[in-house]
Give the backbone structure.
Amino acid sequence: MSQQTPDDCLFCKIVAGDIPSERVAESERSIAFRDISPAAPIHVLVVPRRHEPTVGALAHASADDLADVFRLAQQVAEQEGVADANRMIVNTGSDAGQTIFHAHVHVLAGARFTEGRMV
Ligand code: AMP
Ligand code: ZN
């Protein structure tokens, strides 16, 4: 799996404020901002401030950071009025569509997702 160091990581730069993003929520441990190329009317990324390449690595590194990412994702869903109709997605590995190797959760909503199928 390819990995990026924090110096070479787009989401670390967004966390630091060196690259602009449309932030919609933040906590001490995580930030949430709109995806630059939305796949649904509501598409927000929730990322830990700490750099870990995948959500699985984050789970091993810090249960508190992992929990906070999902807590903030739920806060975003509530803020956006889609707490009862959203899809949270985690891609792990380039074969599964991961393009940024800084852990993140996609919060998608506002579209009618395919029923009865995961993908
Ligand atoms: P993934 O494919 O799961 O690694 O998701 C990475 C996501 O980051 C994609 O949905 C991209 O559209 C999104 N993305 C890439 N660059 C930016 C950026 N500068 N600001 C916001 N979202 C971005
Ligand atoms: Zn990073």
Notes: Residues 63-79 form the longest helix (17 residues). The chain has one domain: 10-109.
